[in-house]
Amino acid sequence: MAKILTVPNPILREKSKPLAIDKKTAKLVKTLKETLIGKEGKAKGVGLAAVQIGFLKRVFLAYSPASKIFLTFINPEIVWCSKRLLNPKKSKLEGCLSVPNKWAFIQRAKEIKIRYQSESGQTLVRRFSGVLATVIQHEYDHLEGRLFIDRALEQKAKIFELVKDEDEKERLEEVKIC
After folding, report:
1. Residue 73: count of CB within 10 angstroms of its CB
2. How many domains is the chain built from?
3. Is residue 5 part of a domain?
4. CATH number of the domain that residue 113 is part of
């Protein structure tokens, strides 16, 4: 298990490097899974990139709601994005373990095609849509040194923070990020 880096850690802004499929990669994937799922067996999020635990390597996990497992993407490359975008007003708020308590509606491609390697080293090309496509695009951005708040600022989207009022009830409140 590893510590998840949070902003303003400069490593989160660096581009990740490709990696070979070997024992070190298998150990890194295991660490990613242990960090994301934790000892309690309850996932902390729907995805995690190696850079978020301090490794500038092109690997991430993304949760598949259909199969109910975390998929591993090694040396991924998004090779196609649909022109149709998910409607941010109808999609879920996007958040990030490296940007705690911040959320935004981000416009992302409704469908993508990605080429990547599996943990066994097999090269795959698969098409994803909906929530899983969003998670993959989010995690892929991490490998490029981008955060979802960068996308929010580009898209002039409102950014929200989870706050508790005096009765300890949680609510979202718009925040300004410069």
Report:
1. 25
2. 1
3. no
4. 3.90.45.10
Residue tagged active-site, from 34, 40, 119, 139 = 139
pTM above the 0.90 mark? yes
Residue 59: inside a domain: yes
Q: How far apart are CA 129 and CA 132, in angstroms?
A: 6
- Domain membership flag for residue 90: yes
Q: How far is CA 22 from the centre of its chain?
A: 23
Query: What is the extent of the structural domain holding 117?
Result: 10-175
**CA separation for the pair 33, 61 (Å, rounded):** 8
Known catalytic residue: 139?
yes
Q: Where residue 38 falls among pLDDT bands split at 50, 70, 90? A: confident
Q: Is residue 4 part of a domain?
A: no
User: Tell me: the pLDDT tens digits for 128-156?
Assistant: 999 999 999 999 999 999 999 999 999 99
On the question of pLDDT at 42 being above 70, the answer is yes
- On the CB side of 164, CA atoms within 13 Å amount to 4
Which phi and psi angles does 81 have, rounded to 5°?
-130, 140
Residues 110-125: tens digit of each pLDDT: 999 999 999 999 999 9
